[in-house]
Amino acid sequence: MTDRIDENPPMMSIAEQAAEWLLRWHCGDLSIADRYEYLQWLKTSPVHIAEMLRMCRLYSWLDSAKLKLFVTNEDTFSNVVELAPPQREGKKARRSKHANLWKVSVAAGIGALGLTAVVGLAAKIVWFDHTFQTRASEWRSMPLSDGSSISAAPYTRLYHDMGDEQRVISLEEGKAMFRVAKDPSRPFLVKAGGIVVTATGTQFGVEVRDEDVTVTMREGTVTVTPGPDSDTTFASVSLVADDQLTVSGSAVPRRVHVDADRELGWSSARIVLTLGDTVGDAVAEFNEYNSTKIVVDEQTSERQIRGAFDAIDPLSFAETVRQTADVSVVHESPDLVRIGQRGHQR
């Protein structure tokens, strides 16, 4: 079987994007076009602004503490040390010198403690904190210690445990895309809503919505079984590429053939609308991911629409609907946009 080329690699987390923008600003590596792109990135979501401010505060703290980690300004740094001619020192000069050395030692100690705290915090996040959670408008990707990776949509919470005998992910809510590194000796298990998905090397998405759990295959093979503590009972189901299985409570699981790239478009922060999709369908997805909600009247909601949209930009989508459907768009508050027929907004 020929492996499918992954045209949608895992996205950087918002924290990683903010760190990259900060680094580029600090290095003076931004053209006029780049600066415009940066402003657009900030406007996309309040989460981006908050994360950028957090990065700036962190950088300011590191700079004031003189923790210059892995960065050297080559313009001001020289490896040539000029030696002053020897001269006799008086007692006062020696006391001053010792005091300065003591201050330097204390500063270095404080710097070392700060560095230890930063490294310790990073270690805690990477090695000990196994909870992975996203907020509104936040897509996050995380590499796992075995070479696998997880891409999560907004409002997702999961727990990961990379053990010696098996790799276990517990998806409590939301949507997550899994790219599983092959390791036949350690099966990769995703527990969600009373079912267990078992894989060794594959790509698939899992969505938990109320009592429904949906598994969508992009490539490879997985086996879906009832969980040990679940009331759901069904025979083991094997899924291959473009299969989708939905388990809803105690009902018989429903298996259908789908276009996995379209169904999993959310994993790369896209909302893909094809023939038959409506404005209402799109609004439901935008509202699922963002704190800014869209309200649409019934007539406009039933209009069909096609295209690919940035999942964290509901305002651009609303503007597209306004232009194509000749309707009004009213920004009632920073968190509410209303779309409707002109003169009939309520």
In short:
The chain is an alpha+beta fold and 346 residues long.
Give a description of the structure:
This protein has 346 residues and is an alpha+beta fold. It folds into three domains: 14-71 and 94-128, no CATH class; 131-263, Jelly Rolls (Sandwich); 269-340, Phage tail protein beta-alpha-beta fold. The protein has eight helices and 18 strands. The chain has helices spanning 14-27, 32-44, 46-64, 91-128, 260-263, 279-289, 298-301, 314-325, and strands at residues 131-133, 140-143, 149-152, 157-162, 167-179, 188-192, 195-199, 203-209, 212-219, 222-226, 237-239, 243-248, 254-257, 270-273, 293-296, 307-310, 328-333, 336-340. Strands 1, 2, 3, 4, 5, 6, 7, 8, 9, 10, 11, 12 and 13 form a 13-stranded mixed sheet that branches. Strands 15-18-17 form a three-stranded mixed sheet. Strand 12 (243-248) and strand 13 (254-257) form a beta hairpin.
CATH topology of the largest domain: Jelly Rolls
Number of domains: 3
What's the level 1 CATH class of the largest domain? Mainly Beta
Secondary-structure arrangement, i.e. CATH architecture of the largest domain? Sandwich
Largest sheet: 13 strands, mixed
Task: Describe the global form.
Answer: globular
Give the N-terminus to C-terminus distance in angstroms: 55 Å
Share of helix, binned? 25-40%
Q: Please give the radius of gyration in angstroms.
A: 27 Å
Helix tally equals 8
* Average pLDDT rating: 79
Low-confidence stretches: 1-9, 66-83, 102-128
Strand residue content: 25-35%
Note the topology.
Layout lengths: L13 H14 L4 H13 L1 H19 L26 H38 L2 E3 L6 E4 L5 E4 L4 E6 L4 E13 L8 E5 L2 E5 L3 E7 L2 E8 L2 E5 L10 E3 L3 E6 L5 E4 L2 H4 L6 E4 L5 H11 L3 E4 L1 H4 L5 E4 L3 H12 L2 E6 L2 E5 L6
Helix pairs in contact: 1-3, 2-3
